[in-house]
Amino acid sequence: MTIALIVHGGAGSWRPGSDADAIEGTTLAVDAGRKILEAGGSALDAACAAAMVLEDNPIFNAGTGAVLNYDGYVEFDACVMVSEGAQIGSVSALQRVKNPILVARQVMEETDHVMLTGEGALRFARVMGHGDHDPITPARFDDWKHKKAALDIGIGIGKDAKASLKIREFLRKHPEYAGGTIGVVALDARDVLCAATSTGGVTLKLPGRVGDTPLPGAGTYANKFAACSATGTGEYVIRSLSCRAISEGVERGKSLDDSVAEMLAQMTRDFDADVGFIAIDANGNAVANHSTTHMPHAWFRDESDIIAKMHV
């Protein structure tokens, strides 16, 4: 009857002096999920509750305070997956809602679909009662103006066609400008695992870009052996189907530690990718590992205290 929950606040290079805020934010998220699990609640409820705490905290790149795309507005990706019945709900390129993770959950529970995107996802969110919400904070808007000016891409279809390459080069030189993701993995007393991931994507992404977060098996995955949430350079996570590979490694008999470490090593070797993962296996073992400078994360298991860190 083990219960456990782990969260991450995004892999990358966090600004100096932000450690305390990040640690507090991830700790509060774990506490919200823990209360549900300790009361006998589901991994799904706990994961979504923890994710909402992170989405509502403007220091994280999800929900309110998410990063802006190249045209200056926010497009959300979010996904939830439950090991029981391989249930999945996902949204991509969703705009102007407060908690994208709840819309993803409703796709899973209220429709026959797995993913809704763009205008269709927004129409569904409104039908489900999610009112209009502007997620852009003054700080994020100021950052966007500064970063866009620093890129010096200009405007126009021809120049925009080269934007993705220039943005990737710029973010490699200035990782503090990258986006990030929030993620939660939970195990409940019924041995059900759930992964929930939510993001605004990468800073200055081209409109319509979809990352790894809403793609089951890439940025979010759960089976009866392990559940995982990814953060970092989504294009490489997609290429590797990283979270599914980690869970399937456990299924084949690897320890969760080894499965996560091997995926990190593979992505570093193949792509020199900046990524991070959190995961929990069916025994309640929680793992966090990353190849970036920072990845704020926090976790608990059974009656242990909440542990929060910026580094592994």
Helix-strand pattern, N to C? Answer: EHHEEHEHHHHEEEEHHHEEEE
List low-pLDDT spans: 154-159
Strand order of the largest sheet: 4-3-2-6-5-1-11-12
Shape: globular
What is the count of β-strands?
12
Biggest pleated sheet:
8 strands, mixed
Query: Which structural class is indicated by helix and strand composition?
Result: alpha+beta
Number of helices: 10
Amino- and carboxy-terminal Cα gap: 27 Å
Which range best describes the helical content: under 10%, 10-25%, 25-40%, 40-55%, 55-70% or over 70%?
25-40%
Radius of gyration: 18 Å
Overall average residue pLDDT = 92
What fraction strand? 15-25%
Question: Can you walk through the features of this model?
Answer:
With about 300 residues, the chain is an alpha+beta fold. Helices cover about 35% and strands about 20% of the residues. The protein has ten helices and twelve strands. The chain has an eight-stranded mixed β-sheet with strand order 4-3-2-6-5-1-11-12. A four-stranded antiparallel β-sheet has the order 7-8-9-10, covered by helices on one side. α1 (about 20-40) packs antiparallel against α2. The radius of gyration is 18 Å and the shape is globular. The relative contact order is 0.19. Mean pLDDT is about 90; it is low at about 155-160.
